[in-house]
Design goal:
7-stranded mixed β-sheet; 4-stranded antiparallel β-sheet; alpha/beta; Rossmann fold; globular; Alpha-Beta Plaits; binds S-adenosylmethionine
């Protein structure tokens, strides 16, 4: 018997999810859909539960086997994943606070004052505000203006420079453990620049890279984006869609353990 799968997308990203399924899961054909709830019939071999669990989608918030209940209540229950579980503090400089807070939760990060970050594309400072509340030193890179709530924090340093004009020498010499990037730049250029600068840091654990999709045709480039990280020593990169994403998704690119030189205590 043919299997039916359901998908839920972020409001406004349905075209991106449909393109992703069409390109990378060609055995799935569109079936019933309502708003941001979509179902597909699997014309190929049925997927096992394990395979479905291990699927990775850039533009699906949730997916699974459709149990046949297409009532309004059942659909609304599925669509509840669209709501962020995080509250946006009044003083947060931007809604980007939610994106990094959702990533923090999704990847079970632990708050730690000894963990330092760099954020590329940091203005006006929603994500920086979250990071300053949960971690140690933070350097934000963005020619745009940062909110005073970040600038006034002694753990914060702002480099008002476009990333492509920045050299490794201008970045802090302290160890940096994570990089976040939320640049309004084309994805290939953004990834290239972030990887170039990330190589300064031997203690780096991973990169949280928000990828902006300007055109739906760019969905076909997603494997190339992931490969750019692989080629730079980041294995097992993970694509995720978070409830507060707009026309974007996140690649979390952990640094492969063998590249983390923990013996270099005095170097970044
Ligand atoms: C989506 S906003 C970042 C929001 C920010 N993360 C926050 O939490 O408020 C994208 C940012 O990318 C910055 N940007 C665009 N091109 C850039 C470049 N070449 N170098 C550095 N920042 C850039 C823009 O100035 C803008 O502030």
């Amino acid at each position: 018997m043919n299997q039916f799968l359901y998908f839920v997308c972020v409001n406004g990203n349905k075209d991106l999810l449909k393109k992703e399924i069409e390109l990378f899961y060609p055995s799935l054909v569109p079936s019933f859909s309502k708003g941001d709830f979509l179902t597909y019939k699997n014309l190929g071999k049925n997927y096992s539960l394990k395979e479905i669990e291990n699927f990775q989608f850039a533009f699906a918030l949730d997916w699974g086997i459709n149990d046949g209940d297409l009532s309004q209540d059942a659909i609304e229950a599925r669509l509840s994943v669209q709501k962020s579980k995080i509250n946006l503090p009044e003083e947060a400089p931007s809604r980007a606070y939610l994106k990094i807070a959702e990533a923090y939760k999704r990847f079970s990060l632990q708050s730690d004052a000894n963990i330092n970050w760099i954020e590329f594309g940091s203005a006006p400072g929603g994500a920086s505000f979250f990071l300053l509340n949960n971690f140690g030193a933070l350097t934000g890179v963005d020619p745009g203006k940062m909110d005073d709530i970040c600038l006034d924090n002694i753990m914060y340093e702002h480099l008002s420079v476009p990333i492509q004009n920045l050299s490794q020498e201008e970045l802090p010499n302290r160890p940096v453990h994570y990089i976040a990037s939320d640049l309004n730049l084309n994805p290939k250029q953004a990834i290239k620049e972030v990887i170039r600068l990330s190589k300064k840091y031997r203690m780096l654990k991973g990169i949280f890279m928000t990828i902006k999709m300007v055109k739906v045709e760019h969905v076909k480039l997603i494997p190339e984006f992931v490969k750019m990280f692989e080629d730079a020593g980041h294995e097992n990169s993970i694509k995720v869609q978070l409830p507060s994403h707009r026309r974007e998704f996140l690649i979390y690119a952990p640094k492969a353990l063998r590249y983390i030189k923990s013996s270099f205590k005095d170097t970044p």
